[in-house]
Design brief:
The chain has 2 helices and no strands. It has 78 residues and is mostly helical. The protein has one domain. α1 packs antiparallel against α2. It is rod-shaped, with a radius of gyration of 18 Å.
């Protein structure tokens, strides 16, 4: 995957988005907050999770040519 700091920061933020969504759902299920916020947490977690997975897949594809350039000319792929 790309080693750019912005790429890693985006992944961390998307991961935190999923965690916040899960916490909202759990708090709403326990009756601590309004159930509408639980629905919001579900949507937030789902969207954040899908974006996270898509961004990781895009990052892997972007990193493949980078890894190929770092290999030695006679080196084989594992």
């Amino acid at each position: 995957m790309p080693s750019d700091p912005i790429f890693r920061a985006i992944l961390v933020l998307l991961g935190l988005d999923v965690v916040v969504g899960a916490m909202l759902m759990l708090l709403a299920h326990g009756g601590w907050i309004d159930p509408a916020l639980g629905d919001l947490g579900f949507g937030l977690g789902l969207l954040g999770g899908l974006l996270y997975l898509g961004f990781r897949r895009w990052g892997r594809r972007r990193a493949q040519p980078e890894r190929a350039r770092r290999r030695e000319p006679g080196e084989r792929r594992p």
